[in-house]
């Protein structure tokens, strides 16, 4: 099965002084194939000072910072199957968390950093959302549905998980559920032909950001958690997807693909969609990948 993988960067936070904490929100983890394979780079918000933090021969993808800034969960094919790993923020002490003969990806930490939700390919054309303890124990299938359930993201209060699914049979839509998999609610109610819509909760919990197919491309949209007050943020054309909020909610980073290109560029813009700016040009691998803003160390 062809996986729609977005290769992302894994980051490192080596300085923990007060000065470094103040600039932490300006650092972004992003993918780059500038070395001939997918490398993991950390850079400032304007694209300056890019440095490799985990440049190796493996495919390390879908990074997710723990909220305390001390750990990074990610997916990797280090043993031939894509599993979920966790490592220290400086790239040390990588530990494999999942070990089934199935592909796991898209980890997302709960707000208290005690749980990790992730997507698992359980069979062809069937993905489910799982949750496990942060040490990899007690994995539980939350969706258990014969559809493509993927891209989990926790609400800031930990009471909901948003995810993308094609269970309606009419393209992908965004749904929310309780952390135990109950109370599934559809919030977008509009068909999108994208395989994954990649929802992202705003830090204040008032909005859900997502990609939606528009013609031959995709643009970023925003709505309230109940689906109301829906509006389009980007008008760049091409395909815009894999979005992530800065922790102060003032900026959004995302992957942009021009029509006919197979390498994504990293963009940032204001939270209202204004002032989009390319900061990494055509170095992301096909499929893009959710950028990750480094949280303040605590």
Task: Give structural notes.
With 298 residues, the protein is an all-beta fold. Helix content is 2%, strand content 42%. The protein has one domain: Neuraminidase. The strands form six sheets. The protein has a four-stranded antiparallel beta sheet, with no helix packed on it. A four-stranded antiparallel beta sheet has the order 4-5-6-7, with no helix packed on it. It has a four-stranded antiparallel beta sheet with strand order 8-9-10-11, with no helix packed on it. Strand 14 (173-177) and strand 15 (185-186) form a beta hairpin. The radius of gyration is 17 Å and the shape is globular. The model is unreliable at 1-24 (pLDDT under 50).
* CATH class descriptor: Mainly Beta
Percentage of helical residues?
A: under 10%
Strand content: 35-45%
Task: Domain count, please report it.
Answer: 1
Task: Specify the CATH homologous superfamily.
Answer: TolB, C-terminal domain
Q: Based on the structure given, which CATH architecture is correct?
A: 6 Propeller
What integer value in Å does the Rg equal? 17 Å
Q: In whole angstroms, how far apart are the ends? A: 41 Å
Structural class: mainly beta
Elements, N to C (H/E): HEEEEEEEEEEEEEEEEEEEEEEEE
**Major pleated sheet:** 4 strands, antiparallel
Counting copies of identical and different chains, the oligomeric state is single chain
Which strand order does the major sheet show? Answer: 3-2-1-24
Q: If you average the pLDDT, what whole number results?
A: 83
**Quantity of strands, as a count:** 24
